Amino acid sequence: MKTARRNVLKAGLTAPFVVSAASASELLPTPPEVEGPFYPTIAQKDKDFDLTRVQGQQSTASGEVLEVHGKVVDQQGNPIEDASVDLWQANTYGRYRHPADTSEGKLDQAFQGWAIVPSASDGTFRFKTVKPGAYKVAKDWSRPPHIHFKVSKRGYREITTQMYFPDEPLNDIDRLLLRHNKEARRAMISTLVGNTAIPIYRYQVVLERV
Ligand SMILES: [Fe+2]
Predict the structure, then answer these.
(1) How far is the CA of 90 from the centre of ligand 1 (A)?
(2) Is 63 within 8 Å of 131 (Cβ atoms)?
(3) Which domain holds residue 184?
(4) Catalytic residue among 93, 135, 201, 203
């Protein structure tokens, strides 16, 4: 009884970051997903939190600007400080800046495409980017908009995963996302919060101790 109450309390305190049911005693570790073929290989110095601007350029990235406000926590919901949050994504045209991406989507020289940001003392991290475009991987399969993540911190299992956006029809037919159960899918899909000029998506990363 006591434990149940504690869990409900804990869920309340950490809302809206809680992704699993309030009755669970521990948070579900962020489900792993394939790294995919487009982890950046072209060296770039600019890997800061603002992916809509590239150092030394006047123009800004094309596409729908948004922010992701994230948090790295352990399975008890405690913040994890100074985790390395490494993320990469396609531009608004669904194209990666990677030699292996030979799709027809346009390259956008003003889009940074890659960032490595640390989590703060309260576990939070944030970055500004544009919504990644969907892209075709097979005749009958287009990936829904997603952002790739690799999150690591000494003492925890490194996680490679993908973050999705809510209410995307392609989510419901994506061959990767559909391999996960409902609870895991919920954990991988970010939440749109509030009604701000720049949309804010909330996303939680739960790391498992090694
Ligand atoms: Fe991808």
Answers:
(1) 7
(2) yes
(3) 2-207
(4) 135
Q: What's the gap in Å between 89 CA and the centre of ligand 1?
A: 6
Residue 96: active-site member: yes
Q: How large is the average pLDDT for residues 50-59?
A: 95
126 a catalytic residue? no
pLDDT digits (tens, 9 = 90+) for 128-153: 999 999 999 999 999 999 999 999 99
pLDDT at 11 over 80: no
Mean pLDDT to the nearest integer, 4-31: 58
| Total domain count, the chain | 1
Is 95 part of the annotated catalytic residue set?
no
Q: Which of 98, 146, 156, 164 is catalytic?
A: 146
Read off the CATH number of the domain in which 156 is found. 2.60.130.10
- Tokens representing residue 60 in the block: 């800004």
Catalytic residue among 93, 143, 201, 202: 143
CB half-sphere exposure, 173, CA atoms < 13 A: 7
Q: Can you tell me the distance from the alpha carbon of 65 to that of 108, in angstroms, rounded to the nearest whole number?
A: 14
**Rounded (5°) CA angle 132-178-117:** 40
Cis check for the bond before 144: say yes or no (omega within 30 of 0).
no
Question: Which position has the higher pLDDT, 91 or 22?
Answer: 91
Q: How confident is the model at residue 24 (pLDDT cuts 50, 70, 90)?
A: low
The kind and range of the H/E element at 185 are helix 182-188
Q: Is the pLDDT of residue 183 over 70?
A: yes
> Which residue has 């399969």 as its token pair?
141
